[in-house]
Design a protein that fits this description.
With about 200 residues, the protein is of the alpha+beta class. Helices cover about 20% and strands about 30% of the residues. A hairpin with a 2-residue loop joins β1 and β2. α1 crosses α2. It is elongated. About 10% of the residues have low confidence.
């Protein structure tokens, strides 16, 4: 029944969110919310809240681990830029939902759609039907002896592994990494699965 719009979580209501209140207090201190501040509020009460804010924030961090926005540091012409998800990214998305995260990436200069982001996967997977469309000779696959074990316990033997260039984002805000994909010949609605190795390379 509870939902916090600040954390996009069900552990508490927005009105009960201490971290949001502390954030608002901090913005007031920096002068960003002057037009919303009650000028008639007793000064002592405002000062008391300011003193309590750091202590409340520390207590909250001990009680719960808030969901933080995903961020990525990209180097753009020598400068570092932090890219995060904001409210704008949720336009047209009905919350809450359990939909998978599916993205489009540039793989070996080909635009590859239907790539599943799976932080539970310890490998980056490329399905054979997508590998074939890249027109890379099969003899470039390196031998892989270790089988993959799926969620249900099924064992899949990869056809091999291959290092491919992957570009995430669009210019000028993009980054390029070299990812080792395991190529598997099994049916899938996705072209690829991006797991922890690629996510860590992207610092995503």
């Amino acid at each position: 029944e509870k939902y916090c719009r600040y954390h996009r979580d069900h552990r508490h209501d927005t009105e009960e969110c201490r971290q949001l209140k502390n954030h608002i207090e901090d913005m007031i201190r920096k002068g960003h919310l002057r037009r919303y501040v009650d000028r008639d509020a007793p000064q002592g009460r405002r000062e008391q809240r300011r003193e309590e804010a750091p202590r409340q924030q520390e207590e909250q961090q001990q009680q719960q681990q808030p969901r933080v926005p995903h961020s990525k540091r990209l180097k753009t012409e020598g400068d570092e830029e932090v890219i995060t998800f904001s409210e704008v990214d949720y336009e047209g998305v009905r919350l809450p939902h359990d939909d998978p995260v599916v993205v489009t990436l540039l793989v070996e200069l080909f635009t590859m759609k239907r790539i599943l982001i799976d932080s539970g996967s310890s490998a980056d997977i490329l399905y054979k039907h997508a590998f074939d469309q890249l027109r890379i000779p099969a003899d470039q696959l390196k031998l892989v002896k270790t089988p993959l074990v799926g969620f249900a316990g099924e064992t899949i033997h990869p056809l091999g592994s291959i290092n491919l260039s992957v570009v995430a984002g669009t210019a000028p805000r993009q980054t390029q990494v070299e990812v080792t994909f395991l190529v598997v010949d099994t049916p899938s609605p996705y072209n690829s699965i991006v797991g922890r190795p690629c996510l860590n390379l992207l610092e995503a």
